[in-house]
Amino acid sequence: MMKRLLLIVLSLLAVTALGAQPTGGVKGTIVNRNGRQPIEKAHLILMQGAATVAETSSAEDGSFFIPGLADGMYTLVIDAPEFLESQVQVTVNDGYVKNMFNLGLTGIQRVTDVDDDSFAQFDMDDSGYNDNPTILFGSNDVFNNIAGYNFSSVRFRARGYASETQDVYLAGVKMNDAITGYSPFSLWSGLNEAMRTKESTNGLEVSDYGFGGYNGVTNIFGNATNVRKGLRGSVLTNSTLYRLRLMGSYATGLMDNGWAFAANVSARLGGNDWIDGVYYRSFAYYLAADKVLDDAHKLSFVFFATPGQRGAQNASTQEVYDLVGDNMYNSNWGYQNGKVRNARVRKTNEPIAILKYDYTPSDKFNAYVTALYRFGKNGYTALDWYDAQDPRPDYYRNLPSYFYDANPDMNRNNGIKNGWANEVWSHPDSYPTLTHIDWDRFYYVNRIQTDDNGLNRSKYIQEQRHVDQNDLNLAATFKYRPQDNLTVTGGLNARVNRTEYYKVVADLLGGDYYMDIDNFAERDFAATPYKLQNDLDYYMKNGSAQVLHKGDKYGYDYYAQVRNYGGWLNAEYTLGNFSANLGGRVGYESFWREGLMRKGLFPGLDENGKKLVVDGVTVEPTYENDGSVVTSYGKSKVSKFMTFAGKLALNYVIGGSQRVYANLGYFNDAPRFNQAFLSPRTRNSIMDDLKTIKTFSSDINWQYSGNGINVRTTAYFTTIKDQSKIMSAYDDLQNAFSNFAINGIDQQNIGVELGFKVPTYLVPNLSVQGVLAAGRYVYTSNPTMTQTVDNSAEVVMENVPVPYWKSTLLADGTVKQHYVPSTPQIAASLGLAYNYNYWFIDGDVEYFGKSYLDMNPLYRTETAVAGPDNQVTANELAYMTEQEEFAPAVLVNLSVGKSWYIHYKYQLGFSLNVKNLLNNRNVKTGGYEQTRMVDNTVSKSQYYRFDSKYFYMSGTNYMLNVYFRF
Amino acid sequence: MKKYIYPLLAIILLAMPFKADAGKHRSYVIGFYNLENLFDTYHDEGKNDYQYLPDGQNEWTEAKYAKKQRNMAQVIRAMHDDNKCWHAVLGVSEIENRHVLEDLVSEPAIAEANYQIVHYDGPDRRGVDVALLYKPEIFKVIASESIPFKFTPSRIDWSQWTQEEMDNFKTRDVLMVRGTIDGEMFAFFVAHLPSRLGGKGADLRPRGAEIIYQRAMELQQEFPGIKIVVMGDMNDNPTDVSMTEFLRGKEFISDVTDEDFFDPFLSMIKAGYSSLYYQGAGNIFDIVMVNNAIANAPKGTFKIQPIVQKKFYGRVFSKPFMTNQSGQYKGTPFRTFSGGAFVGGYSDHYPTYIVISK
């Protein structure tokens, strides 16, 4: 403010001074360049053209001042004995005195000779440099830019790989879930500003942050200096997830004192236009500080969490969707006192603390060490009930098909009930208590279950299933460039994860208490009370099951313990236009289960290894295949695996804008906890013959980048062998809840990718862009399956083949191939992108095809195909083993955005994305086959499949984001 | 091999009774470096340097200024260490005033080069100018001039511009410095042509090139045989019309006549070399080109030499320390500011240079 006032005053003075003596001038100090000592009595001549305007000498302190100069250009000639003469161009403008600060003179003796340092010693025969062009092929991959954003709505998976094969790092630590391997993005959702800066590699490429697998590595930096400086705010509304997102961030950037601070907060609130019951009430906060100690040492601190809850969606059968006339029907919610309540709500609060030390002693070597700790609570609610029918509205016994089926063999002939059910489901709004969860009835029922003490034992409750992680990670990584054409990267990592699985009573729904007993066990073992106990130790101590109140732990409680230790090394060597990468990784991984609750069904032995005596009866233990006792309590066998992997990459740059490169990789990876334990909620039993997963992956690529054109094409071939899987489901043939362990799943993914962006040349700033991903992802083995009964560990089938898993040889001799599900195997997009003067407009048309439903192995067994009569017919074979292919879909999307700079300081902008403009509401994005069969048929000659369940994509939807930055 | 030459030469020199440079192959390095907003921390009256003040948007404090100067000197020093000699002539752009140049040439890392300065305060609104640094024992300055940007006369159609727009348009002057090296007459042009922001710049750069070309042809008339080097941040690639048509920059020496320039960076951009990146795509805006008297030099006079891979006559100088080693801008020049925050880097451009030799 003062400065501006001064300016005004000065310019007024300048105006009034017109016509009077000029106010302009020049001042400065003459110094010796070498040491900056002032030079006294230097002779100064100020000239304008050839005319001398003024002449003066520098004072004792070297200073000079020539006043009274009119605006214009002058030459100041400075001369002093023993110094080179210097000519300085001086411009006097607007009547100001020009301050030249120090004007340095160079001593004559310093420059009289031309020395070796003055001219180069190039010997033209052998000298010169072997610099190679650096073309940024890696950043902004044209395929991923388009596919990554546009294809997410159909759950597209690059090259058909499972999402957990993509390695996601935060601050140099691999964050994929220790138990499941899942991508961890939800841990920081809502912190977009804080987590914006990232670096990604593609496919088999090795990253600077980790060795990676065959599906790319993304490292999110997440520290304070990587948050954009300044204050930012945004408001976002969205029609498929939540109504409102408010977000703010502030970052100081690196300050002169070496500190940088950053904060980011957000709230995501409300429901959406498409799926009832789905809502967000999620918050997020992030605080970070960086301290640069000196050029070599830097410390980073980060703490963030995204506490909140959101309502979930559930899949239903097509029968339900068709009857209610809406593929977005969600069976998870119902009315309570007229208000919508979701039975399945995910509640999370998992803070993450990071401490990182960066060491950069030279530009040839850098290293960092990160310690990252994830903790807190993560759970979701679900209904639990006792002595009552499954309360979910779309339970199969509530649907019209359960009462009548045109096929007489199904023995469903109740036309009247079928009519009623049809009436109800065709008018869901008229019968909300039947077509949605009937919360009011739960409360009513729970309040009339009065016991002898006048208390009500709830029949229906809401439980909360917890998966609470304690995840400690250490990673040390280095990058060393001993010479310009050789880079060596490597690192060490350790992970200690203890995840507690348990459930608590979340809501008694009007009742006073609930009992900690296993109601599935009660059906089979009602006469043996100890077998019903979820917590046998409590029962033995107190003589009865625990009376549960809100917040009490019950049902099951165990630790999943995971330990991973590993190291990796990679070298990249460049020779001319050719470069090669060779790298390897080794690791030791182990996991085990540690039961914290002794379950009545699998009590095992006591702490002294003796058989337990309960209610005066000695409990005879059951045994695993290896002779060990089946137990729910204590530490299981430890599964240990040595893992290793190797990668080779070759890269050749052609001219200035093309390259050809190829990658090869072999991976021997450990299975994960969730692929190993048969029934971790009840016991320590682990899949026999657990094998490492062996993956071979290769690709060859051509890339063009130049003149505004970007193209990448890739062909890839990958085989994945010895995968395992655990499923649990009610088996109608056994009339028992069962565990299915599937072993030896092999698959092959082969395909091509093309991504391009090319200027139209006709209209400036308008480009054509598109991608094509065409693959063939098939199963190449028939796995084996072991089925055990959950309540008894009884083995129903042991290592039986699943002969119709990879394909079916039909009676007419044709082979029906079965495919890896849950992603379109053909995806294409073609669109236009316009970008000019802070406007962007993108529009595209997309096609998705050859997407398949996830298969359950039971339908592909000989037992299921043969039916009760044990005779395989052509019809049974085709019917039972068939895999559903989803109908292809065509979608149109449009995005538009613009930002404005205000006074070069503030930025205001918006972006609007409209997806599925054609309002196509019949696009299946996923689903699953139920692992159940109808067996009570008339003919007793074949089984029937239960209807599959599906998820659909929403119709036309939008997202509008308005942001302000300053 | 190269590392032995130096001590070997020293021994030979000591043994010889002649002057050090007698009978030797002399190669001189001539280059250009865009110093990316080399501002001091003081306000220059009448100039829009408010971003670069201690209380300005960039919080341009003495500490940041000192780091920036150190970095600029480090790059110049690194080129010296690679070439085993200092640039004889180095054109620079995006400097605020004489003061920052005085500070730069006094930086400890390069002070020993004793660079002298030719600089004029130009009319640019932000107050950034071009300048020439030279070694006084090699290059003897005779004259210099600051050539203003004028719209006419030109073969460019200015019908899209109103007279008012043309009157108000201000950009950097082109600097021309004439002098001798080893008795041969040289002229160096240093330019920073109008930027690509805003749609109308497409006509301004050809006009800037035209101004340089016209003056260069006049000098050739006036001083037959004069050797001319045109360098600068052209904000256009060697492949753009401003460079190929208006400055007549040719790709091959054999195609160069007295009316043309040889542009060594034309073949280099085609080979994929880049001196800066914009949205992930490489460019060479930092161009050094020479006239026919250097391209097809008479025997025994200074001639341009191939210096990269024995076939390229120019060099884009980049070292890992000048380059982002991680993050979304990995592989691109490590800048002073990123996303508005000071990150302590160098410049958004890499320097480029050529070598002339007798």
Low-confidence stretches of chain A: none
Order of helices and strands of chain B: HEHEHEEEHEEHEHEEHEEEHEEEEE
Strand fraction of chain B equals 25-35%
How much strand content do the residues of chain A show?
over 45%
Terminal CA distance of chain B: 22 Å
Residue windows where pLDDT falls under 50 for at least 5 positions of chain B: 9-23
- What structural category arises from helix and sheet content of chain A? mainly beta
Question: How many strands, what sense, and barrel or not for the largest sheet of chain A?
Answer: 28 strands, antiparallel
| Alpha carbon gap, first and last residue of chain A | 20 Å
Helical coverage of chain B, percent range: 10-25%
Oligomer: heterodimer
- Which structural class should the secondary elements of chain B be placed in? alpha+beta
DSSP E strands of chain B, number:
18
Mean pLDDT over the full residue set of chain B = 89
Characterize the structure shown.
The complex is a heterodimer of chains A (about 950) and B (about 350). With about 950 residues, chain A is mostly beta strands. Chain A is built from eleven helices and 53 strands. In chain A, the strands form ten sheets. Chain A has a 28-stranded antiparallel beta sheet that branches. In chain A, strands 3-2-5-6 form a four-stranded antiparallel beta sheet, with no helix packed on it. Chain A has a four-stranded mixed beta sheet with strand order 9-8-11-10, with no helix packed on it. Chain B is of the alpha+beta class and about 350 residues long. Chain B is built from eight helices and 18 strands. Chain B has helices spanning about 1-15, 60-85, 100-105, 165-170, 200-220, 240-245, 265-270, 290-295; strands at about 25-40, 85-95, 115-120, 130-135, 140-145, 175-180, 185-190, 225-235, 250, 260, 275-280, 280-285, 285-290, 305, 315, 335-340, 340, 350-355. In chain B, strands 1, 2, 3, 4, 14, 15 and 18 form a seven-stranded mixed beta sheet that branches. In chain B, strands 5-6-7-8-13-10-9 form a seven-stranded mixed beta sheet. Chain B starts with a helix and ends with a strand. At the A-B interface, strand 6 and strand 7 of A face helix 1, strand 1, helix 2, helix 3 and strand 3 of B.
